[in-house]
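Task card 7
Instruction: Convert sequence to structure tokens.
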Amino acid sequence: MKRAIPESNPRARGSIRENTPWIAVMPKEGLPVDFVVDTGFTGFLAAPVDRLREAGWTLEFRGVGRMTVADDRELECEMHRSRLRWLGQDVDVMILDMSSCLLGFRLLSGTNVKLTTSTVEVERIEARELST
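Output:
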């Protein structure tokens, strides 16, 4: 069985700045904020929530969680829920209150990420039937 993907497959486009891929993420309410595409981050998004609130994002506090960062330190951080417009769909995501704006693997799951020397593009992977 395969999923129907519209022919006009929505894409998220961004740029490469200082050798780092950036994409603007659009909330359901508020202004877009640029995030670094970080395939090593397993969550949806991480960002300073004060910055997101300043941009008009609607955030719902969900609790405090522990996470392990790249250098194996464990941190406690607040978790907030928000609604985004991502690749043509409204999605609910968890956002970790951290000092960096990171777009993680949970939001990239089921997508192709294409990088050039100056651009980054994310699009849904077209579902295909597998033959046995």
